[in-house]
Design brief:
By secondary structure, the chain is of the alpha/beta class. The protein folds into two domains: about 260 residues, UDP-N-acetylmuramoyl-L-alanine:D-glutamate ligase, CATH 3.40.1190.10; about 140 residues, Protein-Tyrosine Phosphatase, Chain A (Alpha-Beta Complex). The protein has 15 helices and 14 strands. The strands form two sheets. Strands 4-3-2-5-1-6-7-8 form an eight-stranded mixed beta sheet, sandwiched between helices. Strands 9-10-14-11-12-13 form a six-stranded mixed beta sheet, with helices on both faces. Strand 12, helix 13 and strand 13 form a beta-alpha-beta unit. The protein starts with a helix and ends in a 7-residue tail after the last helix. The mean pLDDT is about 90.
Amino acid sequence: MNYQEAYNYLLSLGNISGREYLKDLRHCVIYLERLQKLLDILGNPEKKIPHYIHVTGTSGKGSVCLMLDAILRADQRKVGVLTSPSPDGLLGRAAVGGKAMNKKEFAELMEKIKAALEIFIHKTNLEIPSQFEILTAMALLYFADKKIDWAIIEVGLGGRFDSTNVIPRKDVAVITNIGLDHTDVLGNSKIKIAYEKTGIIKPRCAVFTSETDKKILKIIAKACRLNKVKLFQTIENAKLNSAVCVAVSRHLGINENTIARGIKKTKLPIRLEIISQKPLIILDGAHNEDKMKTTTAAVKKIMGEKKITDINLLVGFAANKDIDTMTKQLAELQPKNIACTRFTQNFSRKTADPRDLRQQLKKLLRRSNIEIFLDPKTAMEWIRQKQKAGDILLVTGSMYLAGELRESFKLSP
């Protein structure tokens, strides 16, 4: 099996009928059960990893994972990190020592998983694991094969029934913050969402959060009491992601110089990432209200500091996002030209129709020049032709879209 065959096999598993993933939280334990059974057949790679750090939250969890990865590696620890989604595509989801899984490794691991799934359907009556669950199993198998000491695991969705919560133990659980995202699955209030995210809290782990809302903190504190673990709250106002990483690292006994060195070396792709100075192009993966608020504020600051008056946008969103709110936030930037498009490299996630985006933006920005594109690379070509030397081009709305376009710039992870 080569990479393309392995990739096609993964996609093919999506055509097996089954209940819609995480749509009924009352029965979601089945997802962890079926993934655990697959891991059992694979020889329980999850049990061969000595230490885990598990990270959830509405915003910042990917950045926290990457910073902790850099800090632990600066402390000479062998680290694997699982992020979702990855700015470097499918292979970038799992990395060891700062290097993403390569195509050969992906194909070899999929061979093992394919064989395990044949056993799975003969020995169980459980539904076939989802593509995301299989990628989680692949990452754990990859980490075990690489004999890592620490695995830093980013939750994909929620926490309680997310496939990553199959890990058998954890030294640290991090809840960055709680906001309104994935409300169609996790609930339509921060309280309900907080409950789901506290599901990663387990006995014998230390819990860290940068959340400040008192009602939400009560929910986190209750989960900590039930599991008899200690809660550490980061209350620093500036750079909350860095602050929680510093707190976790100190808890793990890493000295201050090493922590500072790790943070300095951290690369955060598609998080307000400047990929070109002249002209100024920014790739950003903001995909919910909280993230977009931060993005628009940061871009306004950049425009003020550089005395830039005109901005151009390339936008695309997943279909289940609060697009109405985010388009209103982006409209505050008063963009001159806008390219509305979609991401094309994630077949399991529905994308918003570019025509709908244009319609919403037209209501808010009657003077803006707005075009639609099915192909994001064509959208990029068009918007770059419209961009003048002194303008900003901001690509935002989806980590999938920003990551897909990042590949065309041939940047290192």
